[in-house]
Amino acid sequence: MGGMRALISAVLTSLALLATMPASALPNPPAKAPAGQEDTQQPATTKPPRNPDDGWFFYRDPREEEKKKTPPPKPAPPSAPTDMSEKVGSAEWIQKNLPRIMMDAINDPGNRDKVELYGYVQKLAMDKSEQFANTYIRVMSANPALDETIRNPTSTFALRELDTKRDSERAEVLRQIAQTTGLWYFFRSDCPYCHRQNPLLDLLQQDSNISILPISLDHQPLQDGSFPNWVADSGQGQYLGVTNTPTLFMVHPSTGQLVSLAVGQRSLPDIERRIIEISRDQNWIDQATYERAMKGMPQRYITDAFDPTSITDPNDPKQVLDALRHAGMHGEAQQSATLDDLQKATRGNATPWKGSE
């Protein structure tokens, strides 16, 4: 009997000790394996220690703890500074270093060496720029393919001559277009804008001889008496969505195409330009005719003749230059020569500047 009391006393003492121990100190019972997998050993998961301040119902995900323990990736080591010592004085060197040199001089204006260094580097940049500009002018002047003033003159007398040439070519092209196209002119008898548009359309008809068919949306003649040979609209306006007047459509009878030209009152130069633009867009005139009308002369673009497939080594500047020269406005034009060379090339014929020997 006494032995039984001692055993009960020992058990009660053990339970009391367990009750006073924190939960984190208690051993975790092994997880029960699913049926059929009792022999499979599962790796033990170590729970993080419990913080007494978290409370009894606080839960901490072990996976989050593992993520926190993962050290952040080390930053990549800084790249070594570019060695520009072999390019001191180049355009790249000046571009990268001039701002820094200037700031050093501004921040330490009492240092004469820093200010002098900035002055020299700036002078170096200006001298290189001026030398490039002078060479650029000489190259452009000696090469017609690169002289943009041929296509777009800058002098007043050349611009005046170009305008005269362009006006003449435009009038000729408009007469050419008028041979295959015409205009539908939708109007209303009381439309004030139509009354202002009528004289301009009359001038266009006189200059280009283009056919104009006046169509009255309200089945009444124009109040100013213009275009007496009008016809009443019979559904054409509704089909084409005409809601405002004046409205102009270009018509190409041989193909049956109808293209909107203008809605609202337009100036005569605007109407002429639109006629030419639409005619080119619809392939009623070719590119050379279009350029003659718009620029006074056909244009030759490097992009039209440039053949990049002729360059076998893109890193060879000479091959690239030769291909671009060949595609230039005047091909591979002779940029310089001597009178002796010219005399030999012309089989000894004399020139006005050097008599035959």
Primary descriptors:
five-stranded mixed β-sheet, 46% helix, flat, alpha/beta, 12 helices, Glutaredoxin, 357 residues
Summarize the structure in short.
It contains 12 helices and 5 strands. The chain is an alpha/beta fold.
Can you walk through the features of this model?
The chain is an alpha/beta fold and 357 residues long. Among the domains are: 87-136; 159-295, 3-Layer(aba) Sandwich (Glutaredoxin); 304-344, no CATH class. It contains 12 helices and 5 strands. The protein has helices spanning 2-20, 62-69, 91-107, 112-142, 156-178, 192-208, 236-240, 268-281, 287-295, 302-305, 317-327, 339-345, and strands at 182-187, 211-216, 231-232, 247-252, 257-263. It has a 5-stranded mixed sheet, covered by helices on one side. Strand 4 (247-252) and strand 5 (257-263) form a beta hairpin. Helix 5 crosses helix 9 (287-295) and helix 8 runs antiparallel to helix 9. The mean pLDDT is 77.
